[in-house]
Design goal:
CATH class: Alpha Beta
Distance between the termini: 52 Å
Strand order of the largest sheet: 1-4-3-2-5-6
Radius of gyration: 19 Å
Structural class: alpha/beta
CATH superfamily: Glutaredoxin
Shape: globular
Largest sheet: 6 strands, mixed
Number of strands: 6
Amino acid sequence: MTRHLLAGVFLVGLLLSATASEAPQQMKPFVRGSWQDVLRSHAGRPTLVHFWGVTCGPCKVELPLLGKFMTDHAGIDVVTISADLVPDLPGATRSMLEKAGLWPAENWTFSDGFVERLRFEIDPAWQGDIPRTILISRDGTMTTIEGSAEMKELEKWSDQQLAVKR
C-alpha cells in the first residue's frame, strides 16, 4: 500500500513538473512601473532591450537578426517590448516573435492606453520612434540605439560585456 501511494505521489509530481515546463510563454503586459521591474530583474547582467511593433517595417527585418543574436549570445539577456500603437494584435505579435526565434525571450507589450507615460518612464526624450534598442551593461550603463541596430555594433558590445570578469 505504501509503495503504491509513493508511486502515485511520484507520478503526480512528474506530471506537474512536465506541465509546468510545457506551459506556454505569455506576453507580459507593460504598464506603469514595468520599466523598473525590467531593470531590477536584470540588474548586474548585460541586457538588450528591443522596442518594436507589428506595423513597423524595419522591425520585421531586424527581429530575425535579433533572434539569431539571442541564440548566439546566451550570456546576454534579451527583452522585447512591443511598443506598437495598434492595439489588440496578440496573434500577430506572437507569430512575429516565434518566426524570429524570439519567443523564448522575455516579451512584453504596451498595455496602457496612455503610451506617452510608458515612453516617458523609459526615456523622457523618447517620442515613440521604433525600432529602438537599449543596451544595458552589467554596471547599469545604458546605450540607446535609435532605428535599426547594426549587428556588428551589438556583437562588439556583447564581446565587451562577456569579457568583463564577474
